[in-house]
Amino acid sequence: MEVQSKLKLYLLTCLPILLLLSSFAQAKSVKYCDKKGNYAVKVDGVKISPDPVARGKPATFSISASAGEAINHGKVTIDVAYFGVHVHTEIHDLCEETACPVSAGNFVLSHSQTLPAITPPGSYTLTMKIEGENNQQLTCISFGFKVALFSSVSSI
């Protein structure tokens, strides 16, 4: 009985640590398009939910970033490549993806989309550019994500 008590105590001690680590595992690392670029918008990370993305189900990409100065308006260009081959481009108004004006400091840009059920499973790369006034490039990042063959998301 004493061994079971110790095991329960151990698991209760480790569970919060494992939950904390799993939340960090959800964040995707990003690469800047120009490693030497001095972008006005710095990206801290990307969270994708669900991860991997499920075909035919909504997916949300949340980009945590910070701006050196306020942004009144702009556009977001998203390019997607499948195993290195360009497959999709879309352009959005920045103010549709986050609240405008964007104040100097931290903000989150969030984009939700449902991929068609026929989307091939595998590895994708998303490149996102944010442009401000006069098409001035504020940031450019890329990150990888996966599309699953089968949905692990419950339909209940």
TrEMBL record:
Signal sequence range: 1-27
CDD domains, alphabetized: PG-PI_TP
Segments forming domain MD-2-related lipid-recognition: 30-145
SMART domains with a match to the protein in the record: ML
One Pfam family here: E1_DerP2_DerF2
Classification via SUPFAM superfamilies: E set domains
InterPro entries: Ig_E-set, ML_dom, ML_PG-PI_TP, NPC2-like
GO biological process, one term: intracellular sterol transport
Annotated keywords: Lipid transport, Signal, Transport
Molecular function (Gene Ontology), one example: sterol binding
Transport in keyword set: yes
UniProt-listed PANTHER family: NIEMANN PICK TYPE C2 PROTEIN NPC2-RELATED (PTHR11306), PHOSPHATIDYLGLYCEROL_PHOSPHATIDYLINOSITOL TRANSFER PROTEIN (PTHR11306:SF0)
Function of the molecule: Catalyzes the intermembrane transfer of phosphatidylglycerol and phosphatidylinositol.
Family: Belongs to the NPC2 family.
Subunit structure: Monomer.
Protein name: MD-2-related lipid recognition domain-containing protein / ML domain-containing protein
